[in-house]
Design brief:
By secondary structure, this protein is of the alpha+beta class. The protein folds into two domains: 222 residues, Rhopdopsin 7-helix transmembrane proteins (Up-down Bundle), CATH 1.20.1070; 158 residues, Reverse transcriptase/Diguanylate cyclase domain (Alpha-Beta Plaits, 2-Layer Sandwich), CATH 3.30.70.270. The protein is built from twelve helices and eight strands. β4 and β5 form a beta hairpin. α3 runs antiparallel to α4 and α4 packs antiparallel against α5. 38% of the residues are buried.
Length: 395
């Protein structure tokens, strides 16, 4: 028996140390995410927990209730694991509250060890704490956005299953303490060691799985983003636009596409230098983000050319919004050692049922050239260039 227990505990320590090291490396290499560091500490504590228990079992009875140090460290590891999930989801960690629950678990263990219920009941508070922590961790993985990834759904299901197992052990121990369950509790407690490697491996696997999925998402976002402005690049714009156009086709929604070009941008570079030109592009992108609707899609699709997809607006409303945006751009003063003022020309095209992005974008581009030909600093609606032109004064 002692040989089997030593083997199981040694395996648990090895798994926990391996996961802790991998998570620490992930934290160091992938932008220092707080949740990776927290998970690494949690698994390091788990390794310490089983090392403490292994030492106690080697120097004591092979079958015995878990010791108080092991239960106290286990509670901290459980709380840290949940804090890591909350950090990953961008939720408040509630660290004080969660560690207060861990402290309450340790106090309950001490009181139960002194009670007439027997030492074995001391494992019940940890089982209850684990069930609560695993359930809270699972809540961070679902319900926060539509279409959660497979990795998140699987991890949430696994955490809830483990929470149910922990709750089941809690009910079994409490039932035994009050005479509601007839079983050899010491044998049950020792038997749980058999499933511990699978539980620890499962949690470790899914934390690594989630980190890998997050890294893949980050890589995709970088590939779809313009490094200078932080907006979508042309590739990201086209990928995102496909979903928007598909929804418009299915549900008959109205859309408008605006193409914007900074007027005489080459002169900015020639007169003030490329650093000033970059500052102008960043300011222009910031102005777009701040002055379009939250549901609208904004991208930099060329050097000084930008695009906006306006959702749920008709042609007239889109033209009004574009002209208001043009006025905001014209009112900016960009400080690059010397104040720089810019204007922009815009071309718009309203979506027609069945059209794809390239078709609408081509019509918007033609309207943009019409704005340029008419003197710049104006917004022109495609197919109505002669009738509907929102323009500023002389440029």
């Amino acid at each position: 028996m002692i040989a089997a227990i030593i083997l199981i505990h040694s395996g648990l320590i090895a798994i926990a140390v391996l996961v802790a090291v991998v998570l620490a490396v992930a934290w160091a290499e992938f932008g220092h995410p707080d949740h990776a560091r927290t998970w690494s500490i949690a698994f390091a504590l788990a390794a310490c927990m089983w090392a403490i228990e292994l030492a106690a079992r080697i120097h004591g009875p092979a079958i015995r209730p878990p010791g108080l140090p092991m239960l106290a460290v286990a509670g901290c590891a459980s709380v840290l694991n949940t804090i890591g999930f909350r950090q990953r989801a961008g939720q408040p960690t509630r660290a004080r509250l969660l560690f207060a629950l861990a402290a309450g678990q340790a106090l309950a263990v001490i009181l139960l060890r002194w009670s007439a219920l027997g030492a074995c009941i001391g494992v019940a508070p940890l089982n209850l704490l684990n069930a609560a922590m695993l359930w809270l961790a699972s809540r961070t993985l679902t319900g926060r956005r539509r279409g959660e990834r497979v990795a998140e759904r699987l991890a949430a299901a696994m955490l809830r299953l483990l929470a149910a197992v922990s709750l089941g052990f809690f009910l079994l121990v409490v039932g035994y303490a009050f005479g509601l369950v007839r079983t050899n509790l010491l044998a049950v407690i020792t038997g749980t060691l058999v499933v511990q490697p699978a539980i620890v491996s499962g949690i470790g696997f899914f934390t690594l799985f989630l980190l890998a999925a997050d890294l893949a998402d980050q890589t995709r976002r970088l590939a779809a983003s313009d490094m200078l402005t932080g907006l979508l690049n042309r590739r990201g714009f086209e990928d995102a636009a496909r979903a928007i156009f598909g929804s418009a086709k299915r549900h008959g929604r109205s859309l408008a596409v605006a193409v914007l070009d900074i007027d005489r941008f080459k002169q900015v570079n020639d007169r003030h230098g490329h650093a000033a030109g970059d500052a102008v592009l960043r300011a222009f992108a910031r102005c777009l983000r701040e002055n379009v609707a939250r549901r609208d899609l904004v991208a930099r699709i060329g050097g000084e050319e930008f695009a906006v997809i306006m959702a749920d607006v008709d042609a007239e409303a889109a033209l009004c919004a574009a002209d208001a945006l043009r006025e905001k751009i014209g009112a900016m003063t960009i400080d690059c050692g010397a104040p720089i003022r810019i204007t922009a020309s815009l071309g718009l095209a309203a979506y027609r049922l069945g059209e794809d992005l390239p078709t609408v974008l081509a019509r918007a581009d033609r309207a943009l050239y019409q704005s340029k030909n008419l003197g710049r600093n104006r917004a022109t609606l495609a197919d109505r260039c002669a009738d509907v032109v929102a323009e500023a004064g002389p440029t």
